[in-house]
Amino acid sequence: MFMKRLKAALETDPWVVLDTETTGIGPGAEAVQIGVLSSDGDVLMDTLVQPLRPIPPDAVAIHGITNAMVAGAPKISEVCDELRALLTDRHCVVYNAEYDLGILKSSTNMRGLLIDWSRTPLSWLCAMRTYAEFRGEPGRRPGDFRWHKLGAACAYQGIPVLDAHSAVADCRMTLQLVRKLLAAG
Known about the structure:
- By secondary structure, this protein is of the alpha/beta class.
- The chain has one domain (2-184): Nucleotidyltransferase, domain 5.
- Helices cover 44% and strands 16% of the residues.
- It has 8 helices and 5 strands, in the order αβββαααβαβααα.
């Protein structure tokens, strides 16, 4: 299902790869970095983003982005128009699309910006779910497939895991993984 949808969308329409690094995973988490690549691998966006609240130490330990690094960064309100322009009329491929879509919604809503990110691109395509389906390991529920972290999926597929948890680096790994999935059919 996910593989068919990914292949059909990416063969006919323009697409980009997006990734965010965040303040955490719970409610109220915000973007602290946004990366977007074209389907050719060109960097279209690579920006730090200043959150409303401090970045917790456990998040810093994962991505290495500190409060000092984002102190002078633009706010989400200053990058959202450019981001929307990059996503409009394209499919948006994300490793865990539901999460990153939620982060964009949370980040803009917390700043009082009512943007319907779910309708900005042509579609949100989840590379994580597509890879899980491709890999075929049973999930927790009948008919579901086990999800894999991006680094683990790439390592299993022979894709170098470089600078993990940097938005652009994660976009590059996702792009390579998607290309491999499309080639496998």
